[in-house]
Amino acid sequence: MPQKYKVFLDNNWVLFSNIPNSIRASQQQSKNKQKHKFASLQELHLELKKSGNLHIQSLDPRQAMIDFFQTFKFVRTAGALVQNEAMDQYLWMHRFGHLDLPKGKIEKGETELEAAIREVQEETGLEGSLTSEKKLGLTYHVYEMNGKSYFKENHWFKFKYYGADTLKPQIEEGIDAVFWLSANEWNARLNECYIGLKELLESTC
User: pTM higher than 0.70, yes or no?
Assistant: First the structure.
Protein backbone atom coordinates (compact mmCIF):
# COMPACT_ATOMS: atom_id res chain seq x y z
CA MET A 1 0.00 0.00 0.00
CA PRO A 2 1.41 3.43 -0.93
CA GLN A 3 2.50 5.49 2.08
CA LYS A 4 4.07 8.92 2.32
CA TYR A 5 4.89 11.37 5.10
CA LYS A 6 6.03 14.93 4.41
CA VAL A 7 7.84 16.83 7.17
CA PHE A 8 8.05 20.59 6.69
CA LEU A 9 10.74 23.04 7.69
CA ASP A 10 9.33 26.43 6.66
CA ASN A 11 8.70 26.00 2.91
CA ASN A 12 11.11 23.08 2.52
CA TRP A 13 10.37 19.45 3.25
CA VAL A 14 11.67 15.92 3.66
CA LEU A 15 9.40 13.30 2.08
CA PHE A 16 9.41 9.69 3.28
CA SER A 17 7.62 7.21 1.01
CA ASN A 18 7.52 3.67 -0.31
CA ILE A 19 6.59 4.98 -3.77
CA PRO A 20 9.60 4.64 -6.11
CA ASN A 21 10.46 7.54 -8.39
CA SER A 22 7.56 9.72 -7.22
CA ILE A 23 9.89 12.69 -7.20
CA ARG A 24 12.45 12.18 -9.97
CA ALA A 25 14.60 15.17 -9.09
CA SER A 26 15.23 13.73 -5.61
CA GLN A 27 16.17 10.15 -6.53
CA GLN A 28 19.90 10.62 -6.09
CA GLN A 29 19.40 12.64 -2.89
CA SER A 30 17.34 9.76 -1.55
CA LYS A 31 20.24 7.35 -2.02
CA ASN A 32 22.82 9.72 -0.58
CA LYS A 33 20.88 10.91 2.49
CA GLN A 34 18.98 7.84 3.59
CA LYS A 35 21.49 7.00 6.33
CA HIS A 36 22.17 10.60 7.37
CA LYS A 37 21.07 11.75 10.81
CA PHE A 38 20.79 15.46 11.60
CA ALA A 39 21.69 16.44 15.14
CA SER A 40 19.87 19.78 15.00
CA LEU A 41 17.40 21.84 13.04
CA GLN A 42 20.23 24.11 11.92
CA GLU A 43 22.07 21.19 10.28
CA LEU A 44 18.91 20.13 8.44
CA HIS A 45 18.16 23.68 7.36
CA LEU A 46 21.63 24.05 5.88
CA GLU A 47 21.31 20.73 4.03
CA LEU A 48 17.92 21.64 2.55
CA LYS A 49 19.21 25.07 1.55
CA LYS A 50 22.16 23.45 -0.24
CA SER A 51 20.56 20.36 -1.76
CA GLY A 52 16.85 21.18 -1.96
CA ASN A 53 14.00 19.04 -0.72
CA LEU A 54 14.81 15.45 0.19
CA HIS A 55 12.96 12.28 -0.74
CA ILE A 56 13.76 9.24 1.41
CA GLN A 57 12.47 5.95 0.00
CA SER A 58 11.88 3.05 2.41
CA LEU A 59 9.77 -0.09 2.73
CA ASP A 60 8.64 1.36 6.08
CA PRO A 61 8.50 5.14 5.55
CA ARG A 62 7.05 5.95 8.97
CA GLN A 63 9.89 4.16 10.75
CA ALA A 64 12.35 5.85 8.40
CA MET A 65 10.89 9.21 9.39
CA ILE A 66 11.16 8.41 13.11
CA ASP A 67 14.76 7.25 12.68
CA PHE A 68 15.66 10.33 10.62
CA PHE A 69 14.47 12.70 13.37
CA GLN A 70 15.53 10.56 16.34
CA THR A 71 17.70 13.34 17.81
CA PHE A 72 14.73 15.77 17.84
CA LYS A 73 12.24 15.91 20.72
CA PHE A 74 8.97 14.31 19.57
CA VAL A 75 5.74 16.24 20.29
CA ARG A 76 2.14 15.23 19.47
CA THR A 77 -0.65 17.78 19.07
CA ALA A 78 -4.31 17.78 18.06
CA GLY A 79 -6.55 20.42 16.55
CA ALA A 80 -9.60 20.96 14.40
CA LEU A 81 -11.41 22.81 11.66
CA VAL A 82 -14.73 23.79 13.28
CA GLN A 83 -17.85 24.46 11.21
CA ASN A 84 -20.71 26.49 12.66
CA GLU A 85 -23.68 25.01 10.82
CA ALA A 86 -26.06 27.81 11.78
CA MET A 87 -23.87 30.43 10.11
CA ASP A 88 -22.19 28.09 7.59
CA GLN A 89 -18.84 29.52 8.69
CA TYR A 90 -15.58 28.10 10.06
CA LEU A 91 -13.54 28.97 13.13
CA TRP A 92 -10.12 30.47 12.45
CA MET A 93 -7.48 32.39 14.35
CA HIS A 94 -4.47 34.62 13.76
CA ARG A 95 -1.32 33.40 15.52
CA PHE A 96 2.33 34.38 15.04
CA GLY A 97 1.57 36.13 11.77
CA HIS A 98 -0.33 33.21 10.21
CA LEU A 99 -3.92 32.22 9.58
CA ASP A 100 -4.23 29.11 11.73
CA LEU A 101 -6.56 26.57 13.33
CA PRO A 102 -6.75 25.81 17.07
CA LYS A 103 -4.42 23.02 18.14
CA GLY A 104 -2.21 22.09 21.05
CA LYS A 105 -0.23 19.41 22.84
CA ILE A 106 -1.88 16.07 23.63
CA GLU A 107 -1.69 15.62 27.39
CA LYS A 108 -0.87 12.35 29.14
CA GLY A 109 -3.93 10.08 29.21
CA GLU A 110 -5.80 12.02 26.50
CA THR A 111 -6.87 10.66 23.13
CA GLU A 112 -6.23 12.77 20.04
CA LEU A 113 -9.95 13.59 19.85
CA GLU A 114 -10.17 14.64 23.51
CA ALA A 115 -7.14 16.87 23.10
CA ALA A 116 -8.55 18.51 19.97
CA ILE A 117 -11.83 19.36 21.73
CA ARG A 118 -10.02 20.79 24.76
CA GLU A 119 -7.62 22.85 22.66
CA VAL A 120 -10.45 24.35 20.57
CA GLN A 121 -12.23 25.39 23.76
CA GLU A 122 -9.12 26.75 25.49
CA GLU A 123 -7.71 28.67 22.54
CA THR A 124 -10.95 30.20 21.23
CA GLY A 125 -13.28 30.41 24.25
CA LEU A 126 -15.82 28.17 22.52
CA GLU A 127 -17.99 26.29 25.03
CA GLY A 128 -20.91 25.00 22.96
CA SER A 129 -21.37 21.44 21.76
CA LEU A 130 -18.68 20.07 19.46
CA THR A 131 -19.33 16.95 17.39
CA SER A 132 -16.55 15.15 15.56
CA GLU A 133 -17.37 14.73 11.88
CA LYS A 134 -14.19 13.06 10.64
CA LYS A 135 -10.42 12.97 11.00
CA LEU A 136 -8.77 15.13 8.34
CA GLY A 137 -5.32 13.60 8.66
CA LEU A 138 -1.82 14.32 9.95
CA THR A 139 0.74 17.01 9.32
CA TYR A 140 4.39 17.06 10.38
CA HIS A 141 6.91 19.84 10.88
CA VAL A 142 10.15 20.58 12.68
CA TYR A 143 11.10 23.74 14.53
CA GLU A 144 13.52 25.13 17.10
CA MET A 145 12.67 26.70 20.45
CA ASN A 146 15.04 27.80 23.20
CA GLY A 147 17.94 26.11 21.41
CA LYS A 148 16.21 22.72 21.17
CA SER A 149 15.01 20.98 17.99
CA TYR A 150 11.48 19.54 17.89
CA PHE A 151 9.68 17.13 15.58
CA LYS A 152 5.90 17.63 15.77
CA GLU A 153 3.08 15.32 14.68
CA ASN A 154 -0.26 17.14 14.35
CA HIS A 155 -3.61 15.26 14.37
CA TRP A 156 -6.40 17.19 12.63
CA PHE A 157 -10.18 16.72 12.91
CA LYS A 158 -13.26 18.37 11.47
CA PHE A 159 -15.94 19.34 14.02
CA LYS A 160 -19.52 20.51 13.81
CA TYR A 161 -20.42 23.25 16.31
CA TYR A 162 -23.79 24.03 17.86
CA GLY A 163 -24.11 27.18 19.95
CA ALA A 164 -23.55 30.92 20.04
CA ASP A 165 -20.58 31.41 22.36
CA THR A 166 -18.54 34.59 22.48
CA LEU A 167 -15.06 34.01 21.08
CA LYS A 168 -12.04 34.86 23.21
CA PRO A 169 -8.47 34.34 21.96
CA GLN A 170 -5.97 32.73 24.32
CA ILE A 171 -3.47 35.57 24.16
CA GLU A 172 -0.80 33.79 26.21
CA GLU A 173 -0.57 31.22 23.40
CA GLY A 174 0.27 33.90 20.83
CA ILE A 175 -3.29 34.14 19.47
CA ASP A 176 -4.28 37.74 18.78
CA ALA A 177 -7.65 37.18 17.06
CA VAL A 178 -10.34 34.50 16.68
CA PHE A 179 -13.06 34.80 14.04
CA TRP A 180 -15.46 33.05 11.66
CA LEU A 181 -14.84 32.78 7.92
CA SER A 182 -16.95 31.35 5.12
CA ALA A 183 -15.49 28.47 3.10
CA ASN A 184 -14.86 30.83 0.18
CA GLU A 185 -13.08 33.32 2.46
CA TRP A 186 -10.65 30.88 4.05
CA ASN A 187 -9.98 29.04 0.80
CA ALA A 188 -8.96 32.37 -0.72
CA ARG A 189 -6.54 32.93 2.19
CA LEU A 190 -4.83 29.53 2.39
CA ASN A 191 -1.49 31.09 1.41
CA GLU A 192 -1.55 32.79 4.82
CA CYS A 193 -1.47 29.34 6.52
CA TYR A 194 1.53 27.20 7.32
CA ILE A 195 2.27 25.14 4.22
CA GLY A 196 1.55 21.76 5.83
CA LEU A 197 -1.92 22.85 6.94
CA LYS A 198 -2.55 24.44 3.54
CA GLU A 199 -1.74 21.18 1.73
CA LEU A 200 -3.89 19.15 4.12
CA LEU A 201 -6.96 21.36 3.65
CA GLU A 202 -6.52 21.51 -0.10
CA SER A 203 -6.53 17.72 -0.27
CA THR A 204 -9.33 16.98 2.23
CA CYS A 205 -11.83 19.86 2.19
Answer: yes
